[in-house]
Amino acid sequence: LDESKMQYIVRNLEVFNEEPINGDITIPTTEEIKRRASAIFATQKRAVTLQDYVSATYAMPANFGSVKRAAIYRDDNDLTRNMNMFIVSEGADGKLSASSTALKDNLKTWLNSVKMVNDSVDIMDATIINFGIEFEILAKQDVSNGTAFNLAKEELYEKLQDNKKSKT
């Protein structure tokens, strides 16, 4: 390429990004990294199962944007093997936010490189519901506060998981 023409283009080109790619996420926990690593290993760089699609979503290169959480469900009302993927991103403030159109387009392109030929994936925004749980614990004298708190969090997590399983 002619260097003078390239420099002319660079000097005269102006770009305005109406909707920036969002999805810069905080560093995942070690437990989350373990889950994602084992899931991506099973995909073998192709998406066949629903879990493969979620794993491929998390494996998308960061320069295309990042998805904080993803879930995918087969649309039982559709005869064309259509799947609905719901994603949520993380804003610069660390809070969950709707994913930008650019991020969704990048994710669709990325998934097209690993999906089965006849699969169809619709990418949609997940509904963000903010809630908190407050609880108090009373630890025995021989148990540290940190240990008691961690045990209480684990128990709460297990109860929520049990509740989630019973609803599916």
Structural description of this entry:
The protein is extended and about 80 Å long. It has five helices and four strands. It is α+β, with helices and mostly antiparallel strands and 168 residues long. Strands 1, 2, 3 and 4 form a four-stranded mixed β-sheet that branches. Helix 2 crosses helix 3 (50-58). Helix content is 40%, strand content 14%. The model has no long low-confidence stretch (mean pLDDT 80).
Number of strands: 4
Give the averaged pLDDT, no decimals: 80
Approximate helicity band: 40-55%
Radius of gyration: 21 Å
Oligomerization status of the protein chains: single chain
Task: Summarize the biggest pleated sheet.
Answer: 4 strands, mixed
Short description:
This protein has five helices and four strands, in the order αααβββαβα. It has helices spanning 3-12, 30-43, 50-58, 101-112, 145-167, and strands at 69-74, 82-90, 96-97, 120-125. Strands 1, 2, 3 and 4 form a four-stranded mixed β-sheet that branches.
Give the tags.
about 170 residues; alpha+beta; about 40% helix; extended
